[in-house]
Design goal:
Helix content: 25-40%
Number of helices: 9
Number of strands: 14
Shape: globular
Number of domains: 1
CATH topology: TIM Barrel
CATH superfamily: Glycoside hydrolase/deacetylase
Strand content: 15-25%
CATH architecture: Alpha-Beta Barrel
Length: 344
């Protein structure tokens, strides 16, 4: 009986051992643990996560287009606290002299300024600190004293008046048409009946129509340092009243001091009235003799704005100075407010 029980137990042990060996064989192989449906999905998900940023087109980061950075015209480092030249011209004619620039030399001045990265702005924009220029360029301001026919004149055509191409305005207009990014800006400081006496009203209208400006140079070119203060309204207000005959709504608000004579009474020069016509000025321009500070410079004083005489000696001396010391000149940072140069 005992032997029978032992035999039955031995057979049962052998059967269990064989069965376990079969199961272990089926569950062995490359997997270190049991392969289940859940673990397979997790493995697939891990593979997807590993390749998601690179292979899934829906998850590829959107490409950023390169910024359209404007080319620096001069390569100079921006410096909007640098100095600005306010150039002072008088006569434009055939022979060079102290106060006369030949037409050929005037054209050369414009070309030289352009080639060196200078661009025209108006005196008004300078005073308002609205200097909108391309990156790397430097503002320059043109002023003309005395209102001579060499600065502006007409040629009588068969049907109408035409701008004299040999006048300063004619030369500037032609240069602007060739180089529109140079600008077409200037202020003409005039006395009574400026430019062409016969057509002076048409002349000032044309200049303003081109987008340039008219300034005060006194009615009869009187030195404000020498004449009686009570004569200021006659000279300053009288000129305003005179120009108003041609341009009723035009505002003249700057003076180029005749002969450089600084007024004895600045307040009377800045504001007054002549025969019911009021005048109010915000800037006084001197005769010389150096570049002006930027409008953001603490040294900026609109009541004593220096100018550079635009002759061979002085203009090119300062151009050479700024070539050697570019850190001293105003250089635009290129942040513009949308101002465009258009032929007006």
């Amino acid at each position: 009986m005992k032997r029978s029980l032992l035999l039955i137990g031995l057979l049962a042990f052998i059967f269990v051992a064989v069965a376990c060996g079969t199961v272990n064989e089926k569950t062995s192989g490359n997997n270190s643990g049991p392969v289940t449906e859940d673990s397979s999905e997790q493995a697939d998900k891990k593979e997807d996560l590993g390749n998601k940023d690179y292979n899934d087109e829906e998850n590829v980061p959107e490409k950023t287009e390169p910024l359209d950075v404007e080319q620096n015209v001069t390569g100079l480092i921006p410096n909007e606290n640098g100095q600005i030249m306010i150039l002072m011209y008088h006569r434009i004619g055939d022979r060079e002299s102290t106060w006369t620039r030949t037409r050929e030399n005037f054209r050369r001045d414009l070309q030289t300024l352009y080639d060196k990265g200078y661009r025209l702005i108006s005196l008004k924009d300078y005073l308002d600190n609205k200097i909108d220029l391309p990156l790397g360029t430097t503002p320059v301001i043109l002023t003309f004293d005395d209102g001579t026919s060499g600065q502006f004149d007409f040629i009588e055509g068969d049907e109408d008046l035409q701008i004299d191409p040999g006048s300063a305005v004619g030369i500037m207009k032609e240069f602007y048409e060739e180089h529109p990014d140079f600008g077409l800006e200037a202020t003409f400081y005039v006395n009574q009946r400026p430019f062409n006496y016969r057509y002076w009203k048409e002349a000032v209208k044309t200049i303003v129509g081109l987008g340039m400006d008219i300034g005060n140079h006194s009615l009869t070119h009187e030195n404000l340092k020498k004449i009686p203060i009570e004569k200021y309204p006659d000279e300053i207000g009288g000129l305003v009243a005179h120009i108003t005959e041609a341009l009723p709504d035009y505002i003249i608000d700057t003076i180029a001091l005749p002969n450089g004579g600084y007024p004895q009474d600045v307040d009377k020069a800045l504001e007054g009235e002549f025969q019911g016509v009021k005048y109010k000025n915000r800037a006084l321009l001197l005769v010389g003799a150096r570049p002006a500070p930027a409008p953001t410079d603490p040294a900026f004083n609109p009541l004593k704005l220096p100018r550079v005489r635009a002759d061979e000696e002085n203009l090119y001396r300062w151009l050479d100075y700024f070539d050697k010391h570019p850190e001293k000149r105003y250089v635009s940072n290129g942040i513009m407010e949308g101002k465009k140069y258009n032929l007006k």
